[in-house]
Amino acid sequence: MGTKKTIKITVVGDGMVGKTCLLYVYTKNEFPEEYVPTVFDNYVGYITVDGVEVEMALWDTAGQEDYERLRPLSYNSTGCFLVCYSVGSRSSYENVVHKWYPELNHFSSSVPIVLVATKTDLRASGKAVVTTQEGKKLKKKIRAARLVECSALERVNMNEVFEEAVRAALRKKPVPKRSCQYL
């Protein structure tokens, strides 16, 4: 039996798009009763993807502007970013291009991204404002490895989100470390 790989997956996106619910439901298999804004929180999840056992260090970040200077400190050693927007919030979708992608590109340009459309259960009630087609366009625009649409409330595509994040992290080519040389 081989050693288990550990991959850090950092979740970003606007406040109230469902980042914490995504992680909470995946790791605890229950939906949180109330909204509590996250500053930073960590979860651990285990998954086997394509025969590889992985321990996921799941980092939940604050989407609020108050934490803009603090948030990038959590990006170090990330294997994959989950960039989340809610299908019920046009502004969260637009902020992927205007805020989240530029921030990640600045601090961690070589780290793969999985784009995650949350709260797809809103489509059944007609409260969704972002379509799947728009999500696909956004995926191409930010060069994300995948787009996964999910609902933490209905537990739809929860495993797929993390399987795709692990696949993206495992596919990433390691950056060779430079040795310091004196001339």
TrEMBL record:
Alphabetized InterPro entries for the sequence: P-loop_NTPase, Small_GTP-bd, Small_GTPase, Small_GTPase_Rho
PROSITE patterns noted in UniProt: RAB (PS51419), RAS (PS51421), RHO (PS51420)
Membrane keyword on record: yes
Superkingdom of the source species: Eukaryota
Protease is among the record's keywords: no
Residues spanning the signal sequence: none
GO MF: GTP binding; GTPase activity
Keywords carried by this UniProt record: Cell membrane, GTP-binding, Lipoprotein, Membrane, Methylation, Nucleotide-binding, Prenylation
Membrane protein topology class: Lipid-anchor
Subcellular location: Cell membrane
GO biological process: ameboidal-type cell migration; cellular process involved in reproduction in multicellular organism; developmental process involved in reproduction; hemocyte migration; melanization defense response; small GTPase-mediated signal transduction
Matching NCBIfam families: small_GTP (TIGR00231)
Name of this protein: Ras-like GTP-binding protein RhoL
